[in-house]
Amino acid sequence: MSDQTKKISATELINLIGSKDVPVIFDVRKKPAYLESGQILPASSWQNYETIDNDLDVAKGRRIVVYCVHGHEVSQSAATRLQEKGHNVQFLEGGIEGYIEAGGPTASKGTA
């Protein structure tokens, strides 16, 4: 992780969900972890953390938050890759597990 890679706390993100300032949110959990889970953050979409920096026109010029299971290597790696491409990106401290523990709302993923 770059020293400049920023993090966002679960509480900060919870306060942004549903507001006009909500960032683009990417679930970057490894595919097996994503497929095993029934929960996602509201309005998030899954992206492969290894190739997330290839083409993100949808997020061009917008604030991005990435999250994985615990907020460690996977999301930090994705955040660093995006930061190196010039995106305004943060990783979710504690990942989806920390977010749920903090009382953050989730959505059912349905079948993938």
Structure write-up:
By secondary structure, this protein is an alpha/beta fold. The protein has four helices and seven strands. It has one domain (6-108): Oxidized Rhodanese, domain 1, CATH 3.40.250.10. Strand 5, helix 3 and strand 6 (88-92) form a beta-alpha-beta unit. The longest helix has 12 residues, at 73-84.
Compact description:
With 112 residues, the chain is α/β, with parallel strands linked by helices. It contains 4 helices and 7 strands, in the order E-H-E-H-E-E-E-H-E-H-E. The chain has helices at 10-16, 31-36, 73-84, 95-101; strands at 6-8, 24-27, 39-40, 44-46, 63-67, 88-92, 107-108.
The number of domains is: 1
Q: Ranges with pLDDT <50 over ≥5 residues?
A: none
- Widest beta sheet: strand line-up: 1-6-5-2-4
Helix content: 25-40%
| Individual helix count | 4
| Structural class by secondary-structure content | alpha/beta
Total DSSP E strands: 7
Report the mean per-residue pLDDT as an integer.
90
Name the CATH architecture: 3-Layer(aba) Sandwich
Annotated CATH homologous superfamily: Rhodanese-like domain
Distance between the termini: 30 Å
Q: What's the CATH class, please?
A: Alpha Beta
